[in-house]
Amino acid sequence: MEIITKLLRNSFEEMVEIRRYLHTYPELSFQEVQTPKYIANYLRNLGLEVRERVGGRGVVAKLYGGRPGRTVALRADFDALAIQEHTNVPYKSKIDGVMHACGHDGHTAVLLTLAKCFVQNKDRIDGNIVFIFQHAEEIAPGGAISMIEDGCLEGVDVIFGQHLWAPMALGEIGVNDGAIMAAADRFEIIIEGKGGHGAEPHHAIDPIVIASQFVVQIQTILSRRIDPLKSAVISIGSIEAINPFNVIAQDVKIYGTVRTFNEDLRENIIHLLEKNLKGVCLANDASYKFHYFRGYPPVVNHLEETRLVQEAAQRVQEVSEVKEIPPMMIGEDFAYYLQKVPGSFFLVGAKDPSLETVYPHHHSKFNFDERAMLIAANVLANATYNYLNTYQNN
Ligand code: NI
Q1: 138 contacts 83 by C-beta, under 8 angstroms
Q2: Which of 27, 32, 105, 137 is catalytic?
Q3: DSSP states of 134-159
């Protein structure tokens, strides 16, 4: 393991170069063309067996270790966001309106460099390593599900993944041995009233008043209908009814999101949302359309594999603290891999200590401390070795 640590340290400059190159040329989810090509070329030059266009635009490479054993999969995502970059870094995005504002450039740089170091050390590996480079993490249905359908987990015993996390201090690793991220769903509602003159509401059916009642009423789903020890979020992000000030709208569109950590609660909330909508429309002689889109399922880590990550992280010199973090309400399609094979997804602190302001992920000024990439690579390397050594000969 000391060998891989040394190899990684010597490759840090290259890791940074890769990250900055990818950062300069970001590509949107489901539109990635150059990025997967770049990844596949790099992996092929290492002498690995490479599969392209896996489940669409994914790239998968396999390394056979010097001795037989189990198979570990490591996953990095590589898509960017529709954001105009507002940083002043020299490697700022050259693609108008597209930016690596979530750190996926870093994830890919980590895994490519790690692949190189593993190859240099492959005779000492007891088993196999599958490198999964996933397209389209940011937008549902996401790339994971189609890559799995296309066989990226075939023969895989365990999977690990990480997210560089700018709100967390450099040197910290965040783990959770259960649900770490939420199911992230979306809904669209149309309340159909009857338009009319603002002065004559009795001849109209005002969908704005009905929508207002609905928004207030659904607040009781979480406060009165759901077990207080279970957590969920229902947020309305947009209400649309654009009219002159003296006109009663014909209809109102409402857009929102639901976040949950378990399937029963998710189904219950969907049911209660529609029930409330139906009730409030019935009471006001309006009609409605209710469209609910299930996003990624919750990311639920496995206990044993999370302990393994924890131990792996504790052995990394640059790691100051490995902490249990509470579940977060964001979504991640790493969830699908964990439904198929055991594994763990963890966070790697990437807050640049010299910065006063840390911009959140998906912000136009987002950036992270690149030293976090080396830490991430070391944790993944240790977890991989630990796992393969533990299950040597079985
Ligand atoms: Ni992300």
Answers
A1: no
A2: 137
A3: ES--SSTT-SHHHHHHTTTTTT--EE
The answer to whether the CB of 48 falls within 8 A of the CB of 119 is yes
User: Is 369 noted as a catalytic residue in this protein?
Assistant: no
CA 202, 237, 96, 55 torsion-angle sign: negative
Whether 137 is catalytic: yes
d(Cα 310, Cα 186) in Å, to the nearest integer?
A: 33
What CA–CA distances, in Å, run from 69 to 155, 262, 343, 385? 11, 34, 17, 11
pTM for this entry? 0.89
Q: With beta carbons less than 8 A apart as the criterion, state whether 319 and 375 touch.
A: yes
| Residue 58 bridge partners (DSSP) | 54
| Active-site option among 79, 105, 251, 369 | 79
242 alpha-carbon distance from chain centroid: 34
The predicted-structure confidence for 46-84, as pLDDT tens digits, reads as follows: 999 999 999 999 999 999 999 999 999 999 999 999 999
DSSP 8-state symbol, 202: G
Task: Give CA 269 to chain center in angstroms.
Answer: 23
* Beta carbons of 144 and 337 less than 8 angstroms apart: yes
